[in-house]
Amino acid sequence: MACEHVLGVGVDIIEIRRFRRIAAMAPSGVARRLYTDEELLDERIDRPEYLASRFAAKEAVMKALGRGMGSIAFTDIEIFQDEYGQPQARLIGSARARADSIGVRTVMLSLSHSDEMVCAFAVSIGGVCDEASNSG
Q: Catalytic: which of 113, 117, 125, 133?
Protein backbone atom coordinates (compact mmCIF):
# COMPACT_ATOMS: atom_id res chain seq x y z
CA MET A 1 0.00 0.00 0.00
CA ALA A 2 1.18 3.50 -0.78
CA CYS A 3 0.50 4.71 2.74
CA GLU A 4 2.91 2.27 4.37
CA HIS A 5 6.16 3.70 5.62
CA VAL A 6 9.29 2.88 7.58
CA LEU A 7 8.49 2.41 11.26
CA GLY A 8 11.94 1.44 12.45
CA VAL A 9 15.44 0.40 11.47
CA GLY A 10 17.97 -1.79 13.20
CA VAL A 11 21.54 -2.81 12.53
CA ASP A 12 23.91 -5.19 14.26
CA ILE A 13 27.50 -6.25 13.62
CA ILE A 14 29.12 -9.28 15.25
CA GLU A 15 32.49 -10.97 15.26
CA ILE A 16 32.10 -14.49 13.88
CA ARG A 17 34.75 -15.91 16.24
CA ARG A 18 32.37 -15.35 19.17
CA PHE A 19 30.18 -18.13 17.75
CA ARG A 20 32.80 -20.86 17.34
CA ARG A 21 32.05 -22.44 20.72
CA ILE A 22 28.29 -22.25 20.16
CA ALA A 23 28.69 -23.86 16.72
CA ALA A 24 30.82 -26.66 18.18
CA MET A 25 28.04 -27.49 20.69
CA ALA A 26 25.02 -26.85 18.43
CA PRO A 27 22.26 -27.80 18.28
CA SER A 28 22.43 -28.22 22.07
CA GLY A 29 23.62 -25.84 24.77
CA VAL A 30 23.11 -22.10 24.40
CA ALA A 31 22.02 -22.58 20.78
CA ARG A 32 18.67 -23.91 22.09
CA ARG A 33 17.99 -20.55 23.76
CA LEU A 34 18.93 -18.47 20.71
CA TYR A 35 17.62 -20.38 17.68
CA THR A 36 14.30 -21.92 16.69
CA ASP A 37 13.89 -25.62 15.98
CA GLU A 38 13.86 -24.88 12.23
CA GLU A 39 17.11 -22.89 12.47
CA LEU A 40 18.70 -25.72 14.46
CA LEU A 41 17.75 -28.21 11.74
CA ASP A 42 19.62 -26.26 9.07
CA GLU A 43 22.60 -28.15 7.64
CA ARG A 44 24.80 -25.09 8.36
CA ILE A 45 24.18 -25.23 12.14
CA ASP A 46 27.82 -26.13 12.84
CA ARG A 47 29.16 -23.09 10.96
CA PRO A 48 29.95 -20.05 13.13
CA GLU A 49 29.10 -17.59 10.33
CA TYR A 50 25.61 -19.10 10.01
CA LEU A 51 24.94 -18.75 13.74
CA ALA A 52 26.44 -15.26 13.90
CA SER A 53 24.37 -14.03 10.95
CA ARG A 54 21.14 -15.36 12.48
CA PHE A 55 21.98 -13.80 15.84
CA ALA A 56 22.83 -10.42 14.26
CA ALA A 57 19.62 -10.53 12.21
CA LYS A 58 17.54 -11.20 15.32
CA GLU A 59 19.13 -8.25 17.13
CA ALA A 60 18.59 -5.99 14.11
CA VAL A 61 14.92 -7.05 13.96
CA MET A 62 14.49 -6.32 17.68
CA LYS A 63 15.91 -2.83 17.12
CA ALA A 64 13.67 -2.29 14.06
CA LEU A 65 10.74 -3.13 16.35
CA GLY A 66 11.93 -0.52 18.86
CA ARG A 67 13.11 -3.04 21.43
CA GLY A 68 16.40 -4.42 22.66
CA MET A 69 17.55 -7.75 23.99
CA GLY A 70 15.48 -9.02 26.87
CA SER A 71 12.07 -7.74 25.78
CA ILE A 72 11.73 -10.14 22.85
CA ALA A 73 12.79 -13.78 23.01
CA PHE A 74 15.41 -14.77 20.42
CA THR A 75 13.31 -17.82 19.57
CA ASP A 76 10.35 -15.53 18.76
CA ILE A 77 12.25 -14.39 15.66
CA GLU A 78 13.10 -17.00 13.06
CA ILE A 79 15.50 -16.15 10.24
CA PHE A 80 15.23 -18.12 7.00
CA GLN A 81 15.81 -17.69 3.28
CA ASP A 82 12.99 -17.48 0.77
CA GLU A 83 13.07 -19.35 -2.54
CA TYR A 84 15.28 -16.61 -4.02
CA GLY A 85 17.84 -16.71 -1.19
CA GLN A 86 16.64 -13.44 0.38
CA PRO A 87 16.77 -13.48 4.19
CA GLN A 88 13.36 -13.23 5.85
CA ALA A 89 12.15 -12.88 9.43
CA ARG A 90 9.22 -14.87 10.78
CA LEU A 91 7.81 -13.23 13.92
CA ILE A 92 5.94 -15.19 16.59
CA GLY A 93 5.08 -14.71 20.26
CA SER A 94 6.50 -11.53 21.80
CA ALA A 95 8.00 -10.38 18.47
CA ARG A 96 4.66 -10.73 16.66
CA ALA A 97 2.84 -8.98 19.53
CA ARG A 98 5.26 -6.04 19.40
CA ALA A 99 5.01 -5.81 15.60
CA ASP A 100 1.21 -5.85 15.75
CA SER A 101 1.14 -3.21 18.49
CA ILE A 102 3.06 -0.70 16.35
CA GLY A 103 1.48 -1.62 13.02
CA VAL A 104 4.39 -3.50 11.43
CA ARG A 105 3.26 -5.48 8.39
CA THR A 106 6.66 -6.70 7.24
CA VAL A 107 10.32 -6.68 8.20
CA MET A 108 12.91 -6.43 5.46
CA LEU A 109 16.38 -7.89 6.10
CA SER A 110 19.82 -7.69 4.58
CA LEU A 111 22.80 -9.78 5.76
CA SER A 112 26.43 -9.56 4.80
CA HIS A 113 29.66 -11.05 6.11
CA SER A 114 33.41 -11.13 5.69
CA ASP A 115 35.77 -13.75 7.07
CA GLU A 116 35.62 -12.09 10.49
CA MET A 117 32.40 -10.06 10.77
CA VAL A 118 28.68 -10.35 10.11
CA CYS A 119 26.38 -7.38 9.60
CA ALA A 120 22.59 -7.40 9.62
CA PHE A 121 20.23 -4.57 8.72
CA ALA A 122 16.46 -4.65 9.32
CA VAL A 123 13.68 -2.27 8.35
CA SER A 124 10.16 -2.52 9.73
CA ILE A 125 7.43 -1.39 7.34
CA GLY A 126 3.78 -0.65 8.09
CA GLY A 127 1.60 2.01 9.54
CA VAL A 128 -2.06 2.80 9.62
CA CYS A 129 -3.67 3.75 6.35
CA ASP A 130 -6.57 6.20 6.40
CA GLU A 131 -8.89 7.21 3.58
CA ALA A 132 -6.95 10.42 2.92
CA SER A 133 -3.80 8.35 2.35
CA ASN A 134 -5.57 6.09 -0.12
CA SER A 135 -7.13 8.78 -2.28
CA GLY A 136 -5.31 10.21 -5.24
A: 113
